[in-house]
Amino acid sequence: MSRPVEERVDGKPFPYVAAILAVLAFAALVALGTWQVERLHWKEALLATIDHRIHSTPRPLSEIERLFADKHDVEYWPVTVKGTFLHGGERHFLATWQGDAGFDVYTPLKLDDGRYLFVNRGFVPYDRKDPATRSAGQVKGEVTVIGLARNPLAQKPSFIVPDNQPAENIFYWKDLSVMTATAGLPAGAKVLPFFVDANDAPNPGGLPVGGITLINLPNNHFQYALTWYGLALVLLVVAGTRLANRWRGIREGTENPD
Question: What is the rounded distance in angstroms from the CA atom of residue 23 to the CA atom of residue 243?
Fold first, then answer.
């Protein structure tokens, strides 16, 4: 008599549970690969948007204000603005530039209408934090700043980022409200709700170093997608081979007499 297909082969039943788990794992790997493809399309669109913005003609401040009011997004839009720097209110954001540790100098710019705008004038080395060590760069009178508008942060970007130390004038993240409160501005001063990173126009004395905006968004989603899809393919081949061999053994067992 022939053994039924459901009988054991080498003392082991056909691995239905393993087959189900393999199918679920394959589906999960394919889903992860597809998710990375979607992320790739999103990242490419974002990079294209940034590239379009940074290469556009600088806009007047009033237009940037309208954009922020409408969409709350002015990131990387070129802007031109006039005003007078209040150097006594500069705030210092811990940063690095070309391998050197130091600070980005955020200085309130007083506009013609009496409002204020914090401008990231650029980088100074750690030992030049004191404005007295770079007095030539403390330009006086009305200036024209051309740079990139930057969105504010609603909160600390990560729990690993240290808390700001406003008493020491050291900021680890750009908290606009605290910068405003500690810059010595007049009571009730109106501050625009975004920043501007100044371009690389040289400052007297060479400091601060402008044009330090870094646009370096990693785009590794294609490699990630290949990894997930590759793992799915490997799983398909390995599991398919093992299950096919097991099934073949069971089928061959039906052809052998007891």
Answer: 12
Tell me the per-residue pLDDT of 64-98, one tens digit each, with 9 for 90 and over. 999 999 999 999 999 999 999 999 999 999 999 99
Distance from C-alpha of 124 to C-alpha of 90, rounded to nearest angstrom: 12
**d(C-alpha 91, C-alpha 45), whole Å:** 34
Q: Distance (Å, rounded) from C-alpha 36 to C-alpha 6?
A: 41
Other Cβ atoms less than 10 A from the Cβ of 239: the count is: 18
Beta bridge mates, 12: 9
What gap in Å lies between CA 14 and CA 248, rounded to an integer? 10
3-state secondary structure of 2: coil
pTM of the full structure: 0.79
Cα separations in angstroms, 3 against 15, 17, 246, 258: 18, 22, 15, 7
In the chain the first and final C-alpha atoms are separated, in Å, by 5
- Residue-wise pLDDT tens digits, 3-41: 444 445 445 555 677 778 888 999 999 999 999 999 999
Q: Helices 221-253 and 16-54 sit at what angle, rounded to 10 degrees?
A: 160
Residues 217, 47 contacting (CB under 8 angstroms): yes
Query: If 0-12 CB within 10 Å is exposed, 13-18 middle and 19+ buried, where does residue 171 land?
Result: buried
Long-range contacts (CB closer than 8 Å, 24 or more residues apart) made by 60-64: 61/111, 61/117, 64/149, 64/194
